[in-house]
Each structure stands twice: as structure tokens, then as C-alpha cells.
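Let's study a protein:

___
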Amino acid sequence: MVSGTTYSEPGLHQIWAQASVCVSELECVERTELKQTVEELEAELKAREEELETLREEVEKASQLQTQRDSLTQKLQETELKGAELLDLEQRLERESFRRSLRSLLDTLNPKILQLTELRDTQTLTHTHTHTHTPSYETL
């Protein structure tokens, strides 16, 4: 209270009432604005939490995909190594098969060559004793 002035005077009372209404309206506006600001901040916080959860899920999926990729890379390397080993084995088996076939052919041809050599030698001896001119094996 201001000295010498009372609030019971009609003009001051009316001003005081209007000021009180204005203060109430300002408080109401401030509360509304604060409430709206809080709601906006809560909505933004919720959106960020959802975004954070989405990012966590994506990180987890990326981690799982990386694990799968590493596993598939390992399997691919193992498969390539086995393929190279199988190719090497196949080539060795082909060479061994070729050697066996060649050995079999030589085993078959050697007796024939020996027989032909003996036949030629026999004919050469016969030819020298008979003095007849028959074409020899060497001229054939």
C-alpha cells in the first residue's frame, strides 16, 4: 500500500481489478505457451527417440549383415580352395590315366615289335641263304 492512498477508492479498485485480470490472462497465456512448448519438446523428444531406435535397429541389421557377409566370404574362400584342390586332383588323375594307357600300349606293342624284329631277322637269314631277291622288310 502506498501511504495516504487506499485501494478502496473506486478508480483504483477498478484499475486493480483490471490489472489482476491482465495478470491472470498473462499467466494463462504463459501457461498455454509453456504447455505448448512442453508438448512440442515432448513430441520432438519422442521423434528423436523413435529415430534413435530406428538407427539402433539399422545398426543391428548392419551387424547381422556383416556377420553373414563374413561367413559367406569364408565359405566362398573354402569353396574356391576345394575347387582348386579338385582341379589339381583331376589333372593328376588324368595324367595317371594317360600314363597307364601309355604303359598298356607299350606293353602291347613291345612284344609285337620284338616279333617283327625276329621275323625280319629270320627273313634276312633266309634271304641270304636262298639268294632270291624278295623285297625285304627294310624296303617296305
